[in-house]
Design goal:
The chain has 262 residues and is an alpha+beta fold. It is built from 9 helices and 13 strands. Helix 8 runs antiparallel to helix 9.
Length: 262
């Protein structure tokens, strides 16, 4: 859904499902696919930590982002009624976002599954008439299932932010540079008092707007961190000024991508 929203359902678009995120990005790096779409943050559940690590480690860049409103539905085989359901399965994050509904149905055995839509595919493929999945409505359409209960998420204002990721050396699309107004960065600083404050002050002095900050531990170096920030900027000159100021202060800076904010 996020892929179609960002790229459009143009002729020739082929979406290849991968088991894990590292596999999806490996296909990008190896040139097997043109791009990958991965979630980076949910408005309720928070950031996807693994994806920050992959962005730093691999030669990929963020080329775009989108916001997708998340609607969770109870989905089962055609003809199945809610009272027939004994087991509900879905991705652990989706289950955690439907706690109120599940708490009201103690008769359900709640089972974590690898994917939301995958739970519907599984119950349809194995013809499980006592099982329901929690997934987007599109999953019911794709796999021929039926929505038993729509909108079972705890909060209506539930959004996931997705990144469109390409290989680092891929040419930038013509005309897209003029629309760029957001940049994602990773940086490391010396482990001394005040260094993070000083880094953030340099971004402020350059005139960019800090919209997110995230920290991830450095493997093998206890209590040291890589910081990830998103900044919005009005002009390319301000973005360059922010980068220059940060590079003068930090021991490592990596631009993860410049793109149009969703």
């Amino acid at each position: 859904m996020a892929t179609v929203e960002m790229i459009g359902s143009r002729n020739g678009l082929e979406i290849i499902a991968c088991t894990v995120s590292a596999q999806a990005l490996a296909k990008v790096v190896e040139g097997q696919v043109d791009a990958a779409v991965l979630p980076i943050e949910n408005s309720l559940h928070g950031s996807v930590a693994e994806h920050y690590d992959l962005l730093l480690e691999l030669p990929v860049r963020i080329d775009g982002e989108s916001l997708l409103r998340i609607r969770h539905n109870v989905i089962a085989m055609p003809g199945v009624k809610l009272e027939d359901v004994r087991k509900v399965m879905s991705h652990p994050v989706a289950l955690s976002q439907c706690r109120k509904f599940l708490a009201g149905h103690r008769e359900f055995e709640v089972v974590p599954f690898y994917d939301t839509a995958g739970s519907v595919k599984h119950l349809m493929g194995d013809e499980l008439r006592d099982v329901a999945g929690i997934a987007p409505g599109l999953a019911a359409t794709v796999y021929g299932a039926e929505v038993l209960v729509a909108g079972v998420e705890d909060h209506a204002e539930n959004y996931t932010r997705f990144h469109l990721l390409r290989r680092e050396d891929t040419a930038v699309a013509e005309g897209s540079v003029a629309e760029v107004n957001k940049m994602s960065l990773a940086f490391a600083i010396e482990h001394r008092p005040g260094t993070l404050v000083a880094a953030l002050q340099r971004l402020a002095d350059a005139g960019v707007d800090l919209t997110k900050i995230e920290s991830r531990p450095v493997p093998g170096s206890p209590w040291e961190y890589i910081f990830y920030v998103d900044v919005r900027f009005e002009t390319a000159e301000k973005a360059e000024a922010a980068l220059t100021a940060l590079r003068e202060h930090c021991r490592m800076v990596k631009v993860l991508g410049r793109y149009r904010a969703a």
